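Exam review. A common question shows you a sequence with its structure tokens and asks you to describe the fold in words. Practice with the pair below. Do the first one on your own.
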Amino acid sequence: MNVQIHAKDITLHANTRAHIEAAVAAFKKYSLDITTVNVNLGKEKKGILVEFDIHIAHAQPVVINQADDNLESAIDLAIDRASKALRRLHDKVISHHATSLKDIEVVSE
């Protein structure tokens, strides 16, 4: 998995970068074939904008935009939203492959 973190008009400290990288590494638990994660941090009029662009093989990319006044809270909210989206995608993939008509056994009495 390729992880790229870009910060525009924001000084990104080592502990904040490590926090983002640890959260992205935790995305592996969803067993999706994540190829690239782009994290963009930028300063805007309303505060801080955090964008997660998660590319998954054989699926549409998951894009999460989160704005907040505080950098750490914006990052945490974006991580929570990305985790929720990936969990839902994982559940969808698993439930799609879970049952088929040939897997269902017919029991007659």
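Now try the second one, then compare your answer with the model answer below.
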Amino acid sequence: MNEKSYTELMKLGAMKRNRLKENFVQDLYIEILLSEIQLTVEREKLLQKIDEAIDCRDKKSFLHLSGQLKEINKKFGT
């Protein structure tokens, strides 16, 4: 028979809960990091397009793109 004591079972349960918490925090950190990378890439693309609109003196595109940039900056918290 391979019966474990109450203490051993409680220790195993605590260890499993700790692993679940660690995995949750790690997954959350990865999700935040990926979101930040995605926003950074979008922001850089918009800045390039804004520069092109300025170079071409395209006011309509500039205003539209700068509005999008404002939205992205809100997501960044800046």
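Model answer, second protein: The mean pLDDT is 88. The two ends are 62 Å apart (CA to CA). Full marks require stating both points clearly.
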